């Protein structure tokens, strides 16, 4: 196989592995040190790659942070399936799905890293805003949320606040609560947000 054929084909396995190691190291450092204090050199050192490879794949630290925001496909599928089905029980399904992502050993640390960095730094917060707006703009999600975009963001804000108290701040009353009981108490409020149309929200 020629060099030209390899270049046009799928990326070499070591290139994919290097990219994944960079993203994993970035998530670790953004979580531990925040966006501003994290450097590309420290990420490269942890990932075991040359810093030039980060620039090649992501362009900048902000580009790398944006890449670290991308959740696994299973997370997208889980959230999407929670919005499908009977509208009257969307709140219950979305609450259970969202909290399960924080509980999951793969996605939980990733979401915590994203949250810590976004709360602490305006640039990281802006990147997260763009990611969330892009998620809602996707055709499959947009169709399920037609006319209820604001309600969805209010529901997610409610869930994020609970998640921060349980998993980041670890407030004893919330962190120690039974997960199913906690979800059952939260779901009705989430449902009220999802039930409200954008017209109702703007008129109130």
TrEMBL record:
Residues 39-58 bind DNA. The keyword DNA-binding applies. Residues 16-76 form the HTH tetR-type domain. SUPFAM superfamilies: Homeodomain-like (SSF46689), Tetracyclin repressor-like, C-terminal domain (SSF48498). One of its GO terms (molecular function) is transcription cis-regulatory region binding. Keywords: DNA-binding. PANTHER family: HTH-TYPE TRANSCRIPTIONAL REGULATOR RUTR (PTHR30055), TRANSCRIPTIONAL REGULATORY PROTEIN (PTHR30055:SF235). This is DNA-binding transcriptional regulator, AcrR family. It comes from Branchiibius hedensis. The lineage of its organism: Bacteria, Bacillati, Actinomycetota, Actinomycetes, Micrococcales.
